[in-house]
């Protein structure tokens, strides 16, 4: 609380880089205290934070109304205003999500493996928090609570940098959250909202190697691209979800159509949406499949053989195979067998989620083994690419990088490990 | 083999960046083939490589003699020549190490965990190779074989960039290795030695995000610092091993002295060597401990209270607490209890290996929990910080970063995972 007070009296003139570095140093110290708390203590503090979020509903909604008014005055798009807007029900949902994460099993302290050497040395790898996490996000104010909660559950300090559209909402949510956390014994400096909207603060976070251990961007492609390009700190993120569904020759036609329609059209704007459909040349119901997609309002951009199936297919250009539409638009290619499908995916997939539909288990196993994406699926819709659907309880994001964590990243991805070695006086010969 | 031929005929004028990118693309394609081989096939290929290394001994020793002659002509330090020099015994050791890694259990394909959701979707996380690894190393030619072998065992392609002092030795070892691997069905492009000594090739490797998945530098501090500063690709490494041993008040004096002498003096030049000794103010045999170190030829730089123990102690300057000597020099501080030791370590440790000597188990457990280093030890010499000593069979390096892998990194650290999802036609509601 002392340091919170000092932060409030910090001179306005402080440059963003010095500010971010100071906050990160405070966060690192607070993280040591947070890590020394028991799992039950962290969970209890998160429950108090959820209570405070509910109790602060009037203040949060007032702050949110201020953001919305400012957004409308600035002519923000309606979709953006929607993402920004809170009401009693949404706030209750945010508090419920905090409680759900508080009740998730704590990965910290888990023994990953253990062994003993002939000399009697005993080795254990145990999970520990990553440390200090930076979250850089856009309009949705719920990220303030969601991301902070996941970080704290796994013993991490967090520096939150929200979008300027949601500045008052974020401050109100953050204040309520921290009030509850502090009541539960978490140092206030463990969960910090960067107090300036100066864009240089984002650059300072991205450059804070050694002070921030990991950055998670949450937002649109331009935000993620900037973070990936400029960060000197490791980043967990995905840039694109160019996801393929391959309808194998031995696919059940009813299942193939259900999955294709769901993968593309259930929600077209999420990163798990299918963007390219690969239809095997030996799949007997290709024309029906393409027609069903178009009938449901999907624009189909096809290669030459797909165009022969339906007059309404638009010719695909070379770019289409590398495009994430996030809309009711789909590129469709006909492929000659599993090897051709694998080759297309190896060339064009963004490594997020790729699926095969087939009743041939051998083909499915080859696909699951050889496709080198974070998530590979057999007979399921790519729209399941989500930490909640995977049983992880929540997710901080989906990662398409190859190191540390891939696919939906939840509490375990917010931990690392250390080696504990127990001896009885051993010296090395 | 075709591509090897094409590589040999590549024009000399090709710029290093284009060259590295071309080689990395070839490596990525070859990695898919390597990953599709069975574990037994990869192991068998590595045994063939070991055979070829032994059979090529005359050629390798001739090449090595050429490097040594060039090094001596250039006035290379004797220690450097020693690191460079091969003989029949060292070569046999290299081949034996290749066979030992070939026989290690393969992490690829291991199921990390699995679960089933109420909707019937089944989830498995399985280990897969990281992809293409870049190794940037200095004089020791054995790294060519050691690093390549570890990468291939775990299904990774590897781009090797050795030091100019060992260029002929590295080429001869690489040629023998690849001959055996190709005989065993591994594509030649999976194990490549960068064919130019142009330093721009290192820069090209460090910048090859998306083509190289991970860089492991093997060499001195200036090499590691450059790699960490410039890399756009994730790096697994340690810069410093500023390792502490804390002699707690309840340490057994015989054990404390044995461990301190071993941790500092067994080999002073390795990254696991102790660099700072913390002696508790209540430890009764502090003077004897300091005297024993000095008697064994160690220069002791102490704080004020340590200087009172022995006339031969040199005053420590502020820099000493952050210095990795890699020599028979030790900084020694007296600390008032466990909390003071933890605070000193939190401030000065490089996060490599820190140890406590005590017969008080509660103090030991607090130390093992609260010290946030890759390796924490109780009653053991920090010189055990080594993958072989940890039972990992071999190591590609020791990592002090916080993500992906920490401490000794062996085969598992050269893998990542993917999610395999098996359904029966599920679509997301």
What is the topological layout?
2 copies of one chain form a homodimer.
Chain A: H1 2-8, H2 16-36, H3 39-55, H4 57-73, H5 78-84, H6 88-102, E1 111-116, E2 122-129, E3 132-137, H7 142-153, E4 157-161, H8 167-183, E5 191-193, H9 200-206, E6 214-218, H10 221-230, E7 243-247, H11 253-265, E8 274-280, H12 286-295, E9 299-302, H13 304-307, E10 314-315, E11 329-335, H14 337-348, E12 353-357, H15 361-370, E13 375-380, E14 397-399, E15 407-409, E16 415-426
Parallel strand pairs in A: 3-4, 3-6, 4-5, 7-8, 7-12, 8-11, 9-10, 9-11, 12-13
Antiparallel strand pairs in A: 1-2, 2-16, 14-15
Helix pairs in contact in A: 2-9, 3-6, 3-8, 4-8, 6-7
What does this protein look like?
- Chains A, B: Catalyzes the NADPH-dependent reduction of L-glutamate 5-phosphate into L-glutamate 5-semialdehyde and phosphate. The product spontaneously undergoes cyclization to form 1-pyrroline-5-carboxylate.
- Chains A, B: Belongs to the gamma-glutamyl phosphate reductase family.
- Chains A, B: Its EC number is 1.2.1.41.
- Two copies of one chain form a homodimer.
- With about 425 residues, chain A is of the alpha/beta class.
- Chain A folds into two domains: about 240 residues, Aldehyde Dehydrogenase, Chain A, domain 1 (3-Layer(aba) Sandwich); about 150 residues, 3-Layer(aba) Sandwich (Aldehyde Dehydrogenase, Chain A, domain 2).
- Chain A is built from 15 helices and 16 strands.
- In chain A, the strands form four sheets. In chain A, strands 10-9-11-8-7-12-13 form a seven-stranded parallel β-sheet, with helices on both faces. In chain A, strands 5-4-3-6 form a four-stranded parallel β-sheet, sandwiched between helices.
- In chain A, strand 14 and strand 15 form a beta hairpin.
- In chain A, helix 3 crosses helix 8 and helix 6 runs parallel beside helix 7.
- Strand 16 of chain A pairs parallel with strand 13 of chain B.
